[in-house]
Amino acid sequence: MRRVRVLRDLIVAMPDGVNLLADRWFPAGDERAPVILIRSPYGRSGLIGRLYGRGFAKHGFQVVIQSCRGGFGSGGLPDPLGDERDDGLATVAWLREQPWYHGSFAMFGPSYLGFTQWAVAAEAGPELKAMATQITASQFRDAAYVGGAFALESALGWTALTDPGSPFMPVTSMLTVPRATRRAALSGRPVGELDLLTSGHPLRFFQELLAHHADPAVPYWDKRDFHPRVGEVEAAVTMLGGWYDVFLPWQIKDYLAMRAAGRRPYLTIGPWYHVDPRHGRPTMAEAVAWFRAHLLGDPSGLRPDPVRLYVTGAGQWRDYPDWPVPGMREQRWHLQHGFGLGREGPRPAGPDRFRYHPAHPTPVIGGPVLLADSRPRDQRRLEARRDVLVYSSPALDADVELIGPVTAELFVRSSTPYVDVVVRLCDVHPGGRSLNLSEGVRRLGPDDGAATVDGVRRVLVDLWPIGHRFKRDHRIRVHVAAGAYPTIARNPGTGHPLAAGGPMIPADVEVFHSPERPSALLLPRVPAQGRSACAPRG
What we know:
Number of helices: 11
Structural class: alpha+beta
Strand content: 25-35%
Oligomer: single chain
């Protein structure tokens, strides 16, 4: 490993006169090595500097770590998501003017640091040779409004964590912020007041998220959504995600957009959640190999197949040539009378019913949340509730392996047109433990779903992708509910804006499972094949 030097507080002038600060790490004696650019709202020294600045410089790269606008010494006011394209492109232009610039560069970073890469990737020019992105996506809109439902816990937690006036101590904020967020959410106060309860003052970005819903046509998202241009990115891209990460569905959409444009990105998905420290070492190992291949011309560290997946339940890493994986076939598992679940079509039967009351919202146990441990948890306490319908298969007579996208097709009727449909997939162990693996939500209004004359609507719900083996003697289980609080904001049943609070209307929900209305989960069945792979290096 090489000795490393660092020059701190370099001034990068933006076109509007604001100065952003950056640190430059480089290997001693090689001041014109290829550059890795990292743009961060979380600072540029401390752990980030040691892990990324020193870490990559030891491998022969220069590293420029810049603080985004409005934080850690950089000027201007923070506008989360909104300034990253313009500031990023101005930084790339500054980079080209430096005497130590090699002539090519790469970008790196997880989460928001990955979003800052996508913000400039389509316009950075041919000198951008490579990108290494982790637990991130090219747009955060759909993660803030999952299936149209406001992702309350994640949105409130992140805005409280990153607000310049945050009262939380940086060293302990990853513990204190989630606790404060959940306390606020469980207070019963209107959603628009929860930032006051969490931080003691209004959080501008939280209020903006509440005001600008998930419709991509809303002008607010014009400069905050870069997914439409993902296919234009010519840089070599590697992506690392987790089965329990909040951004996984949209990270996979980015992968598919690049494949549709003829690119060949790499994709790694492990048994990780967003703030899981276990993906730190694979992140660095894969990025070093990627940058050596595309900046230094040394592809020896790259694996032959671009897709690497950890199959939970089997405990195996597998390599595949693409996503969806070869041999995947969509299977319908039908909801059955008597709360069964099976491959055979449903028989004539009446619907199952439950009542959802937003004043006492259906809670959630686990599931993807930004700042929490999102690994699977036992759902039996939730399954005992009257506002959760539970459908289970018989014990499996052979292993069932599912790798790919998961969708629910449900036929539902509600006493109010404003209702959420929450679907969850679980693995039930022989002893009765029921572990959540994948879930999704769809927020309905009067115009959502193709209603029949009697008010029954066909509703499609996208769940999190899955890579899991249900072992012999286990059971496949499906939940249907109308809430997952506080992961998503409660649906008041009125169609009124969330922020203001006000009256709440209970929803009496019916779920149909008959030959005419065959509610089912569409599962990605694969044969027991695929080469085992070593765990990602590190």
